[in-house]
Amino acid sequence: MKLFSEEKPKYADGKDPDSLVELREAVQRFREMEQLIPSPPRITEDIKPYRRHQMPCGTSLEFPLDEDDKASCSLFFLSNATEYPHHSHAQREWLIVKQGSLFFQKQIDGEWELPERITVGQSVTIEPGIIHRANTIEDTWFYAITVPKADW
Question: Which CATH superfamily is domain 51-147 in?
Answer without folding.
Answer: Jelly Rolls (2.60.120.10)
